[in-house]
């Protein structure tokens, strides 16, 4: 019987995941001071040597364990095949370039905020995977699902961060599910964009309600509470947020159309507003 051998097939991806975990643990031990100083890019003095270090190391930092797990699950799924195909040195270089570009964009154009996390690196790998598969003459449906789910999760979490300055890991899953469902409307249901947006807002509200029942009332995580909002149901959904989902669904539908056309060359049905 042939002996099985465990191969260290993806050193760059595995080391990246390990270093990110160590950075997260170090941030916990220091009360977030290490994360702010070493693993988070923001506008700082050009005379500070750490300013240049953070342009690269910010991709190792994460705001919490849910943020870390969301990025690492996709990194470990998409990264190893790319490293085996293109080599460790090439993948390490693309990670460094991605970190530098996203760091510079943050430093130059968003001086009032900070950036950390491997989201840019993960998205780079997803894009690279899509191009690799397109050269083979086909695109796996699983890759499309991963891209759509990931973008939806990041979009939802970004909206939450802008709205209330924090988010929860369950919001990534909820956002991915909502984005995938709503984006499917434009490809499978022939209806005007405004009708898709209205239906999408109802779908998001439906998912939000049952997610809220699970995480807030059953698991008692206290992720959100709309009890003080008008026209709320059990504090999990409310009319003002349902109205907010209407324009956000429109953005999501248009983003999905553009993303599929740019990354996968997938044609979309002609868009009608009304």
Please outline the helices and strands.
Blueprint (H helix, E strand, L loop, with lengths): L10 H19 L3 H6 L10 H9 L7 H22 L1 H22 L9 H17 L5 H24 L4 H20 L4 H26 L13 E2 L3 E2 H26 L10
Antiparallel strand pairs: 1-2
Helix pairs in contact: 1-4, 3-5, 4-5, 4-6, 6-7, 7-8, 8-9, 8-10, 9-10
Characterization of this structure:
The protein is an all-alpha fold and 274 residues long. It has two domains: 8-138, Rhomboid-like (Rhomboid-like fold), CATH 1.20.1540.10; 147-274, no CATH class. The protein is built from ten helices and two strands, in the order H-H-H-H-H-H-H-H-H-E-E-H. It has helices at residues 11-29, 33-38, 49-57, 65-86, 88-109, 119-135, 141-164, 169-188, 193-218, 239-264, and strands at residues 232-233, 237-238. Strands 1-2 form a two-stranded antiparallel sheet. The mean pLDDT is 82.
Strand content: under 5%
Main-sheet strand order equals: 1-2
Q: How many alpha or pi helices? A: 10
Give the SSE string: HHHHHHHHHEEH
CATH homology group of the largest domain: Rhomboid-like
The secondary-structure class comes to mainly alpha
Which descriptors would you attach to this protein?
single chain; 274 residues; mainly alpha; Rhomboid-like fold; 10 helices; 2 strands; 70% helix
